[in-house]
Design brief:
Helix content: 10-25%
Radius of gyration: 64 Å
CATH architecture of one domain: Ribbon
Strand content: 15-25%
Structural class: alpha+beta
Order of helices and strands: HHHEEHEHEEEEEEHEEE
Number of helices: 6
Number of strands: 12
Distance between the termini: 183 Å
CATH superfamily of one domain: Umud Fragment, subunit A
CATH class of one domain: Mainly Beta
CATH topology of one domain: Umud Fragment, subunit A
Oligomer: single chain
Length: 318
């Protein structure tokens, strides 16, 4: 007998051994167990049982220090049921975060240049020089304004003699003066450019050349205007006092004191020429006026005295 078993190819066991085997089929899955109904977990010890219909545990009681997280303590009902629990209020709002400080925006307003012509002309010069020029222009401008006002608007004058006493005082150093200080008056220089002079006004004027010969002084006088152009003027004596008549009628002169009416002699009658004015002082016995050196032409009139401004106790309007 041979050591090798002789088998034919047709042997089914041999054929099966020679062919590759198929993968084994997986075992069948076990049947699923029916799901049990949901049951809530048992409540921890020390808590009341959940009420019917709850799907979660009741809130933790605030008396447990380990579980107190700021929730308010629920108000239990008499039977211990914490249905009276109220939800907590909203936490207080936190302050807004601090904003980063930013520098203020730059000043973008338009630069306004001065309208002063001096500032415009000296814009490129150093500041000390500009200040000096500004002061010089200011002082010179003030002087020019004062001169223009004196020349065309108002000019002050001092009363040097007693010819206008007691209406205008002079200092006692002069004969017939009643005051300690001479009055200083203001004359309106442009008024007679607007209207004609009127009788009774106190007028500042330049005297004719004859005044210096008759009175020993000339220049600028202050007298009262008595006669207008075309008037016939006469001074009559009564009991040693002089009274003025204009066109045959006595002139009312409330500005003259009775003691100042004394006249050395009568005067006139004379007719005032057109464009001329007859001047007299209120202190008739001590006034060198038109009775001595004649009438004053319109061109010589400077202005009307409208106020006394010095001394303070003599401030008044005329």
């Amino acid at each position: 007998m041979s050591d090798v078993e002789d088998r034919s190819p047709e042997d089914p066991e041999r054929v099966a051994a020679s062919e590759p085997s198929a993968p084994p089929e997986p075992p069948p899955a076990p049947p699923e167990a029916p799901s049990a109904p949901f049951e809530p977990a048992a409540a921890p010890a020390g808590l009341p049982p959940a009420s019917a219909g709850w799907t979660s545990l009741p809130p933790v009681r605030a008396d447990d220090p380990a579980e107190n997280h700021g929730w308010p303590t629920p108000t239990p009902l008499p039977d211990g049921d914490p249905i009276g629990f109220e939800p907590p209020s909203a936490p207080p709002a936190l302050p807004p975060p601090l904003l980063a400080l930013e520098p203020p925006p730059p000043d973008r307003r338009p630069v306004r240049h001065s309208r002063n012509p001096v500032d415009r002309l000296t814009r490129g010069l150093p500041n000390p020089l500009r200040v000096t020029i500004d002061w010089v222009v200011t002082i010179v401008g003030a002087i020019v304004i004062v001169l223009l006002v004196k020349a065309f608007v108002v000019n002050p004058y001092r009363i040097p003699s007693s010819s206008m006493e007691p209406t205008l005082h002079c200092a006692r150093s002069e004969p017939g003066c009643e005051a300690r200080y001479s009055d200083r008056v203001l004359a309106n220089r442009f008024l007679y450019r607007l209207r004609d002079p009127r009788r009774g006004e106190i007028v500042v004027f330049k005297t004719p050349a004859a005044a210096k010969i008759k009175c020993g002084a000339g220049g600028t006088f202050v007298k009262r205007l008595i006669g207008l152009p075309g008037d016939t003027l006469q001074v009559k004596l009564r009991n040693g006092n002089g009274y003025v008549y204009i066109n045959g009628k006595p002139l009312k002169e409330p500005y003259i004191q009775q003691s100042r009416r004394a006249a050395v002699q009568g005067f006139g009658p004379v007719k005032v020429a057109p464009g001329h004015y007859f001047m007299m002082g209120d202190n008739r016995s001590q006034s060198c006026d038109s009775r001595m050196w004649g009438t004053v032409p319109r061109a010589n009139l400077i202005g009307k005295v409208f106020a006394t401004y010095w001394p303070p106790n003599r401030i008044s309007l005329h």
